[in-house]
Structure formats: C-alpha cells, structure tokens
Specification:
six-stranded antiparallel sheet; three-stranded mixed sheet; alpha+beta; 9 helices
C-alpha cells in the first residue's frame, strides 16, 4: 500500500492560487483539491446583493449569507477533488466561479431557509453527490465529528492557524493539521503514524474526492490571502473543519462592507451552518441547521427561526478561532488581531 518509492518520489508542489475579485479585493485560496474555492463561490454569489444595505448581522443579512453558503457547499460536495495526476474528473472551476453561473444559482435563494442539498450543473454537467449512510444522500446521520474528540467526548487537540506579515508586505497564512496521535494508527513496520486526512476521501467510486492512488484528500484546511488594488493586504484564517470557510467569510464581509477593524470583525458574533454533510466521518448533517452565538439580537434569532432555520444558540463567545494580519499598502502600517475565544489566540508585533 505504501512503499519507499512513494516517499522518495514525492515533493511538495508549488501552485498558483485560485482567486476571485470582490469589491476591490482579490481573494486567494487553494485549488479545489481542498475546500478553499468554496469561500470564493460564496463571494461570487454574494456579489449580487447589497449587503451593506441589509445591515450587519440583521436577519436579512444572515439569511442571505447562509443560503448562498448552502449552495456553494453543495457544489463542494459534488465537484471538488484532486485531479493533479490528470484524472478526467477535474473540477470545472472556471464555470463554478463564472458570473453567469452565480446569477443562475442566486435565483434559488428564497425567503425561507432551504432544507435541500442543491449542487449546480456547471457547463451542463450532471452533479453526482456521494451516498451517505443509508440508500440515498437524503438519509443523514449524526456522529462524533473530528477525531480530536475522544470516546468520552472530550477535545484533546485541534487544528492550528498562523498568519504573519512583515515590513515589506510578505504575507503568510497557514493552517497546519492532520496528525492527531490519539486517532492515527501506528504502523509498526513503517515506524510512524498514518495521517488522519485520508478519512475525507470517499470509498464510493467515481466521485471527485474518491480514494485513488497519488491523490490528495479534499481537506477542510483553508488559509486565506487578500490583495487590495493588486497589492498584498490581508492574511487570515481559522481552525474549525467545515466552519473554516464560514467563519472566515463572516469576518471578511464585516471588514469589507462595514469597515470593522480586524479585531472588531473577529470579535463580532459568529455563526455557521450545519446544513451540508461534514467532511469527517460519519458525515453528519442537519438540513437547515444554523448555529449562532447567543450575543446576536433576540429579535434576529426569532426572525431566523420564522424563516425556517433550525437554530441552535451556542454560548456567547464559543464560535470561531480566527486570526488575521495585514499591511496598509499606502503607509506600510502593520496590523494583527487574534481571537479571544478559548484563550488560545495571540497577536504579537516586533
């Protein structure tokens, strides 16, 4: 299954990012071998709305962002996967980020919360969703989540995220993860643990993210970079599995549309959807599910419930693990912000 030649012949590829221009910002993400472009698809859909007019964290604003997110993540399930070895089933990324495709998908956003997983058909292709436990993808199950949770339900570790910027404007965004010792089997003959990210591949054949030799799993690890007027401006990201490109989106929109500082945007009440299948076994999903911090206005929460969102109210400072750094291209002023939740976020300068 794994040979010395596999290790000797491997090298880390250097790839151009996938990017999308949004309100004067060029947002850069990994390719569709990971979930990175799902942030760009959400921005592509949201470009057709006046979010500033809707108002920060109003019911209209939250509903629009969440419903667009459901469409983007449905496409993630149907289309994302690694094709760097020349597989025929490469992700139709140009079509997924095309303005006409976004306009077509945007028409699916209604006044009520959707309870369906609705991937699109970019370029006329037929989407194929993986089968979850049961006979059809409509039968969803609830499970234990990431392997960082032990048998007693206690978290013993998590993904990390790091952002760095220097005086010359070099930005780095990194999300290291994937080798939890408590859940990685030790192969005595090889002398090391297996990584845990292969669980994100599917054993069902014919999917973009099916298990195949030499192919990377479709990870949730999703650091972000943004340029402003063509110059490096911002590096940001968070741990959190499927929530990474949701929490990062709320942060970015708050900064871009409402002028919140990096720290204010991180501190703002956070939300995420549980509508689509988890990337982690056993692929749990809650159609229409929405988790929100209790600091949101009570009237907003009530209106979201009225629109059909299956709302779970979490603790006031419990969602999101964001950090961010940036450099003003005009003045060279450096900024950094860290997450106050959980007591594990730090921002430092020298």
């Amino acid at each position: 299954v794994l040979t010395a030649d596999d290790l000797a012949g491997w090298q880390c590829p250097v790839e151009d990012p996938v990017s999308f221009d949004y309100h004067g910002y060029q947002v850069c993400k990994t390719g569709p071998w990971g979930q990175g472009p799902v942030l760009l698809q959400q921005l592509s859909l949201l470009a057709g709305y006046d979010l500033a007019e809707a108002g920060l964290l109003t019911a209209d604003y939250i509903h629009t962002v969440v419903e667009c997110g459901k469409l983007a993540f449905a496409d993630r399930e149907a289309w994302y996967g690694d094709a760097w070895h020349g597989d025929d089933g490469s992700t139709p990324l140009a079509e997924l980020l095309d303005e006409r495709y976004a306009a077509e998908r945007r028409r699916l956003v209604g006044e009520a919360a959707s309870l369906e997983l609705r991937p699109g058909a970019p370029g006329g292709r037929t989407p194929r969703l993986p089968l979850l436990q049961g006979e059809s993808s409509s039968e969803l199950v609830v499970g234990s989540g990431e392997p960082t949770v032990d048998a007693r339900g206690q978290t013993r570790g998590d993904t990390c995220h790091l952002d760095v910027v220097d005086r010359w404007g070099m930005h780095i965004s990194a999300t290291p993860s994937g080798g939890w010792l408590q859940s990685s089997p030790m192969i005595a003959e090889l002398g090391f643990c297996l990584g845990t990210r292969a669980q994100m591949t599917w054993l069902q054949e014919g999917l973009p993210s099916s298990l195949r030799p030499g192919v990377r799993p479709r990870t949730t690890l999703s650091p972000s970079l943004a340029l402003r007027d063509g110059r490096p401006y911002l590096a940001f990201g968070t741990p959190g599995g499927d929530q990474q490109d949701q929490w990062s989106l709320w942060f970015f929109l708050a900064h871009v549309h409402f002028g919140l500082s990096l720290q204010q945007a991180i501190d703002a009440p956070m939300l995420h959807s549980t509508h689509f299948p988890s990337s982690f076994w056993p692929r749990a999903a809650e159609p229409g599910g929405l988790v929100a911090e209790g600091r949101l206005d009570a009237a907003v929460l009530q209106e979201l419930r009225r629109r059909g969102h299956r709302l779970t109210v979490a603790g006031d400072w419990t969602l999101g693990r964001l950090s961010a750094v940036g450099r003003d291209p005009e003045t060279g002023f450096l900024r950094a912000a860290a997450n106050p939740r959980g007591g594990a976020g730090y921002a430092a300068g020298r």
